[in-house]
Amino acid sequence: MKRPTITDIAREAGVSKGAVSYALNGRPGVSEATRHRITAIARELGWEPSETARALSGVRAGAVGMVLDRPADVLGVEPVFLALLTGIQRELGPASLILQVAPDHAAELEVYRRWHGERRAGGVLLTGPRRDDDRIAELPRIGLPAVALGGPLGCPGVPSVRVDDAAAVGEVLGYLAALGHRRVAWVTGPGVLVQTRVRAEAFAAVAGRLGLAGARTVHTDHSGEGGVAATRRLLAGSRPPTALLYDTDVLAVAGITALRELGLAVPDDVSVVAWDDSALCRLVRPALTAVRRPVAEFGALAVSVLRDLMTGGDPGDVRTSPPSLVTRGSTGPARPGP
Question: Which residue stretches belong to region Disordered (predicted)?
């Protein structure tokens, strides 16, 4: 018979997995009445902490670790990163979040080994999952529970939390096609990232279905300088795009700067869409049409799944609520031309 997990208790009690975790670990965050109801249901279902959870009982206050895979100067100007941290910390409550920047994957793995050996973190949130990612095999081997921020990975033992980016791509391209755009370009991140692959594959498939023969993808890093350079390359061709989709809000703002330097108006000459909606998208002029993803929910859900994994659950991959497209002044009808 399958051992009951936090997910089963949450379903039976009609509460979130985070609330179950608070109640079973004696932490603030739920009322006493809810705590008693959850613990009673746990007893009825025969729930008990797994051996993994017992082994982690000495880890400092249920701390969760996250190693960042982007340069600190890039992270410092990404509003979406702050939204992610807000969701993570909201779900963690009083527990600690340990953050560290690593220059490469080898250094990142050393951080994980040190955290596990020093019992500093009971589990980790894996950022920027990649194709053929050596971290995916190594983390279960050393016994450190991990949840990937992005996917799907299809890796037993390392569940992922993800947003339905393919659906968002379809909504964006459908909207641009309805405005008459046929030459659409995507300025996206490094091709080794899983999220880049998922979006790029969806972009190619939807563009083909809509007959957007001029659709193309350009890879860059996530810096403003990379966004400017990619925009200049795209506009230098004989048939430049009439609409540009950028992987982040920072890249989109950099792209608008490059367009203005080239003497082009947004959206009269070129429409611009940003992938992540943020305050930055609303402050720039014209305000950016953007894909609004549930980033704070994404972070909170990742912590909830990680806690389930740490206490013996087998949550599998989880998807957030769907993203949506917010239209603003940076997009308009395609300019007539060849």
Answer: 312-338
